[in-house]
């Protein structure tokens, strides 16, 4: 758990999304008190307490009509809420569930009944449960915003606790379900639709992922920002520009649930994904932003164990240090020498097992960001590199185990 904080800091993010237990197992060891106190002390120092996120186990299905699974799901969800409360994690994201074998209406009612018990067991807790939209495959609940809105209002009817139940949106899921995010205008319309049905003031977390599946494919496969069907054609004109510059979205924690791996030049994809999103807010060149990071965090191009004949052209490593060990002492690179940039490499190096999150501008959004529809398109990438730390309040971060979709 605390390693996630280290990694988020190293990557210059300012929040994390974590699993507080093994997300593939029903059983969970109690939290170790020493870890909890270490965690709490670290979080207090970092000042991230108001924006950390946990993702609930994938085993939980509060919508099921199989009683045994439903009971187990409620018990595990109770544990998830208690863990978040102990760790001061404000937001607990979960997928609403699947109504397989029954109807959508029955599934929604089942989740609301589960919440009555969950909130009875956890009276007075601060952790906010966030219903995540889904790609809508099979009998999964949460593709249409109308269903999410109906679910939340039924939960409120049964619990009387509106502040404890909110939403998380996932850009990959939105797009895959059929809320087109491939253009800025379409994304603005999708966010307007969300506001009209769910109320954007109830949105607490945004998962920023590009999508391998096309719009409406219902395929839940995350891609790096700018490498999928949302951002690849033209990132600056894509829905990501509308999302990161939306005045509400700009202030909430944003999580990257993209693969935790390095590009062929050794740069963590989290850094590239963040740079691309920040560039949509600031108009800076994303590779220049990447260069700012590599100047103080030298990277080494991965040594790929490929037969000589098929070896790719060597890529000039970014930074000057041969080893990544002494990041502080290493001389900063003068210029990032990234050319072979945009292709996702094969996973070449064991990436840290967690996902990053993006938090956009949490302080004052940059000029123009207060009006989501009137903000001009970002300037082209002409500006010289400038430290992201000095150019406003944009920060990103987080962490969660990799490999799984969220
Ligand atoms: Zn997600």
Molecular structure report:
- The chain has helices at residues 2-10, 33-46, 67-87, 104-121, 145-159, 171-177, 184-198, 239-244, 269-282, 286-296; strands spanning 17-18, 53-55, 91-94, 97-98, 128-132, 140-141, 165-170, 203-207, 210-211, 222-223, 253-255, 357-361, 394-396.
- By secondary structure, it is of the alpha/beta class.
- The chain has a domain at 2-284: Divalent-metal-dependent TIM barrel enzymes (TIM Barrel), CATH 3.20.20.
- The strands form 3 sheets. It has a 9-stranded mixed β-sheet with strand order 1-2-3-5-7-8-11-12-13. It has a two-stranded antiparallel ribbon with strand order 4-6. Strands 9-10 form a two-stranded antiparallel ribbon.
- α3 (67-87) links the parallel β2 (53-55) and β3.
- α3 (67-87) crosses α4 and α9 crosses α10.
- The protein binds zinc ion.
- Zinc ion (ZN) is lined by residues 132, 170, 207, 257, 406.
């Amino acid at each position: 758990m605390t390693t996630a904080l280290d990694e988020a800091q190293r990557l210059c993010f300012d929040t994390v999304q974590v699993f507080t237990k093994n997300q593939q197992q029903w059983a969970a060891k109690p939290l170790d008190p020493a870890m909890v106190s270490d965690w709490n002390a670290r979080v207090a120092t970092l000042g991230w307490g108001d924006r950390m996120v946990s993702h609930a186990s994938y085993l939980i299905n509060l919508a099921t009509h199989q009683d045994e699974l439903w009971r187990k799901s409620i018990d595990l969800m109770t544990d998830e809420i208690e863990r978040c409360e102990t760790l001061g994690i404000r937001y607990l994201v979960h997928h609403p569930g699947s109504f397989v074998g029954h109807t959508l209406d029955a599934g929604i009612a089942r989740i609301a009944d589960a919440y009555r018990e969950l909130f009875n067991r956890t009276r007075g807790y601060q952790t906010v449960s966030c219903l995540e939209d889904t790609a809508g495959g099979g009998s999964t609940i949460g593709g249409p915003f109308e269903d999410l809105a109906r679910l939340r209002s039924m939960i409120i009817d049964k619990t009387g606790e509106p502040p404890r139940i909110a939403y998380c949106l996932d850009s990959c899921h939105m797009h895959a379900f059929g809320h087109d995010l491939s253009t800025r205008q379409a994304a603005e319309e999708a966010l307007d639709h969300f506001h009209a049905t769910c109320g954007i003031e109830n949105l607490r977390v945004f998962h920023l992922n590009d999508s391998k599946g096309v719009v409406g494919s219902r395929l839940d496969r995350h891609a790096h920002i700018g490498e999928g069907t949302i951002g690849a054609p033209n990132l600056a004109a894509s829905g990501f520009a509308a999302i990161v510059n939306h005045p509400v979205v700009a202030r909430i924690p944003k999580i990257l649930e993209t693969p935790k791996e390095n590009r062929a030049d050794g740069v963590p994809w989290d850094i590239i994904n963040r740079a691309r999103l920040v560039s949509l807010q600031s108009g800076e060149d994303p590779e220049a932003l990447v260069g700012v990071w590599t100047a103080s965090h030298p990277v080494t191009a991965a040594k790929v164990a490929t037969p000589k004949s098929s070896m790719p052209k060597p890529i000039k490593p970014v930074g000057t240090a041969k080893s990544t060990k002494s990041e502080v002492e290493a001389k900063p690179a003068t210029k990032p020498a990234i050319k072979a940039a945009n292709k996702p490499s094969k996973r070449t190096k064991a990436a840290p097992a967690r996902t990053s999150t993006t938090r956009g501008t949490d302080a004052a959004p940059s000029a123009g960001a207060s009006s989501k529809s009137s903000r001009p398109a970002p300037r082209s990438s002409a500006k010289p590199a400038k430290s992201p730390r000095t150019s406003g309040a944009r920060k990103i971060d987080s962490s969660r185990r990799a490999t799984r979709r969220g």
